[in-house]
Amino acid sequence: MGITKEAKYLIAAGIVFVLTGFTVVLGDAPQLSKAEAASVINRSAAIIRTAQRFAVEGEKYHGLGLSLGHQLYARQLYFEGDYPNAGFHSLRARELAGRVISLNKSSIINEALFNRNEERLIRSSPSGTELDRRLKGREVAIPDDQEAAYADVDLEV
Fold first, then answer.
1. Distance of alpha carbon 88 from its chain centroid, rounded?
2. Burial of 128 by CB count in 10 Å (0-12 exposed, 13-18 middle, 19+ buried)?
3. Could you tell me the CA-to-CA distances from 84 to 50, 52, 102 in Å, in that order?
4. pLDDT tens readout for residues 1-10
């Protein structure tokens, strides 16, 4: 005697439920290797340095302090071994730095801001507002925007 059609449906539904459950438990959050996180952070550092230079020249600084705060927090997370969150905060820092460059009348092409792997990471990243909230919940010094333009801090790993 074989399995009834109803039993087959229940088994199939159970398998789908279990697999879906595992996806939810395991999540689709990207796993970032130490080397990938370092690459993200170091690329962001270069763009932040460019934003600092443009801010000094154009005297428009809005968002630069928050950008530096995210980058410094990203470095901290990196050294703690939390590579995905380090990547999220560093990319947020880069996004804010790109805005500072744009504010100072210099166009920056989005393709220059993020490579394909970083675009994938951005899609799974918490929102900018959420990342800002997380940063402000930590004891990380967020410099004043104008001070950030002149800050000489280590942004790389």
1. 2
2. middle
3. 24, 26, 27
4. 567 766 555 5
pTM of the full predicted structure? 0.79
Torsion of CA 134, 135, 136, 138, to 10 degrees: 90
Burial of residue 140, with CB atoms counted within 10 A of its CB: 0-12 exposed, 13-18 middle, 19 or more buried = middle
For residue 33, the 8-state DSSP code is: P
Alpha carbons 9 and 11: distance in angstroms, whole number? 5
The model's pLDDT over 58-95, given as tens digits with 9 standing for 90+, comes to 999 999 999 999 999 999 999 999 999 999 999 999 99
Are the C-beta atoms of 75 and 86 separated by less than 8 Å?
Answer: yes
Give 151's pLDDT tier (boundaries 50, 70, 90).
Answer: very high
